[in-house]
Amino acid sequence: MSPDILEDAMELWFGPQHVSAHGWATKLTLVGDYVVECDPNAGYFHRSAEKVLEYKNFRQGALILERMCMLEAFLAEYPYVAAVEKIAEIEVPERAKVMRTIMMEMSRLHSIQFWWGQFNAELGFFTMALWPWVDREYSLDAFEELTGSRHTVSYSTPGGVKYDFTEKSMKQLNRALDRFEDRLPKFRDMQMGSPTFRARTENIGLYDVKQGLKWGLSGPPMKACGIPMDLRKDDPDPNLAYDMVDWEVPITENPEHPGQSDALDRMEQRFAEAETACEIIKQLIPQIPEGPIIDPKARGKANRLPEGEAYARVEGTRGITTLWLKTQDKAQTAYRAKIRGPCIASYYALKDLVPGSKFADFIVIFGSLDPYPGWWDR
Amino acid sequence: MGFFSVLGDFFQILKHTFRQVFKRPFTYFYPFEDREYPERTRGRHIHVRKSCTACAQCVRICPVVAIRMDKEDKKYEKDCALYFDYTRCVFCGLCVQACKFEALFHTPVVDMSEGDREDLIYGPEKIETLDREPLKWRGRRFR
Ligand code: SF4
Ligand code: SF4
Question: Which residue minimizes the CA distance to atom 6 of ligand 2?
């Protein structure tokens, strides 16, 4: 960049007070209407989650994790629970495995419904923002009926789950699912058929597989390039029930730019993800086995853990979420926990992805990667 | 677009407007009426002192140290007084699960605003009684 261009450049902070910047701040350098430099700044949402985990015992720890990302609370708390189960060698009953999987997929659905509305709100397409949020209410009702809380569900615990399905919660779950499945094709037509929406997202934020891998992206941003990378298929967790279901990894391939993805492809990918989640839940509900929901010995085992190390990961809504846990002998709390959220990669990808695009497209690129600040400020 | 098609659209909109006027509103007239909360709602607690054994499991499991215990204060043989600090509580439900003597429960009362911080620390006399029925306290219903 020649220095004369930068002479009349303007520095602009996007966030932390901006309404669609919920807790993040990005420094943009603008020349006219174009962004020439983008500098993402993490740290405005820092809550010391990793340090707090060193002071909480193994039954309390999952509560911290679910607060990292409340939109996918069932998915977010799972890596911690899985790591504790690995170190303490706790067996999980079959029924709990299936129930966990159902609720994790439901959580994915909820997160997509929320993101979908939020993305449209950021684009100024407010009608399409409110409609998925109506369906989201039904998902939240199902969570509330099952666990007693709408967001901070505190559902998984070492050795199983805390709350059993009741007749009423099953009814709420089916209602949320049926309603969304019914309305999804209609919404999809409305969204994809909108010329304004297409004009704002087509060929915006274009990157290819190689760049994506370099930045460390995972989940929907990579699957939108046509790469079927999904932990649920590639490395199935023995404590979850994905092997009981017949499903395909959803991918999006755009013939106009194969191996690349733009904001529109990433939108398509979210629809495909939602459809797959519905399919998995629909297949799992009739297969719920009878039995206990929690291993009765788990509580005692989780009180004091032997010395060990465990690494657990799960395919979250935004990508791969991992947690590394180290304990000392007869430990009541973790010696060290390290969280790697999926969004740290997609947030810092903006550094290479945004320069050269218009300022108005910044929020489109940012929104299409679906970052959540809780995942990069740990 | 002809004049009549615009007029047709106009009447369509009017039809929808009129239909909405006679429908039930989707919102609640909040302070006076509220939705029904599910049975498992994790609202404020209620402490049944008669069955409490002062085992302190609830105090130990609480991740945010919201419960304080006073063992000296005895009403029955083995019980104790509990103080709940609702400026700290995150309504995780761990204390209720930890209690093995059926002495601690959640209630569906979730609106607990107070004018003073101190009033949110529920002492024994407040935590042992429900000052109102969770669903039937709001007086007259508007629809
Ligand atoms: S609900 Fe959770 S935070 Fe509140 S008092 Fe009980 S254990 Fe503590
Ligand atoms: S309320 Fe339950 S857990 Fe708490 S001290 Fe009493 S008996 Fe123990």
Answer: B52
Inside any domain, residue B34: no
Look at residue B22 and tell me if it is in a domain.
Answer: no
Between residues A75 and B109, which one has the greater pLDDT?
Answer: A75
Structural domain total, chain B:
1
Measured distance CA(B116)–CA(B120) in Å, rounded = 7
The residue written with tokens 């904001």 in the block is A263
3-state SS class at A161: strand
Contact of A209 with A253, CB cutoff 8 Å = no
In a domain? residue B123: yes
Structural domain of B60: 45-129
- Please say whether the beta carbons of B100 and B110 come within 8 A: no
Q: Are A118 and A312 in contact (CB under 8 A)?
A: no
Residue A164: Cβ within 10 Å count: 14
| CA A151–ligand 1 middle distance (angstroms) | 16
Residue boundaries of the structural domains of chain A: 49-342
Q: What is the pLDDT along chain B (143 residues), one digit of tens a residue?
A: 688 888 998 898 899 888 888 887 777 777 777 778 888 899 889 999 989 999 999 999 999 999 999 988 888 888 899 999 999 999 999 999 999 988 999 988 888 888 899 989 999 888 888 876 655 544 444 43
What pLDDT was estimated at residue A124? 86
Nearest in space to A81 (alpha carbons), one of A158, A162, A152, A153: A158
Cβ distance of A60 and B41 shorter than 8 Å: no
The Cα–Cα gap between B22 and A376 comes to: 49
Q: Could you name the CATH architecture of A49-342?
A: Orthogonal Bundle (1.10)
Whose C-alpha lies nearest to ligand 2, atom 7?
B52
Tell whether B111 is covered by a domain. Answer: yes
CA of A235 to the centre of ligand 1 (A): 36
Going from the C-alpha of A70 to that of each of A114, A124, A152, A366, the distances in angstroms are 11, 24, 6, 19
Average pLDDT, chain A: 90
Q: How many angstroms away from the CA of B143 is the closest CA of chain A?
A: 22
CATH number of the domain enclosing B93: 3.30.70.3270
Which two three-digit tokens encode residue A190?
A: 């409305």
Q: What is the pLDDT of residue B142?
A: 40
Cα A229 to chain centroid distance, Å, stands at: 15
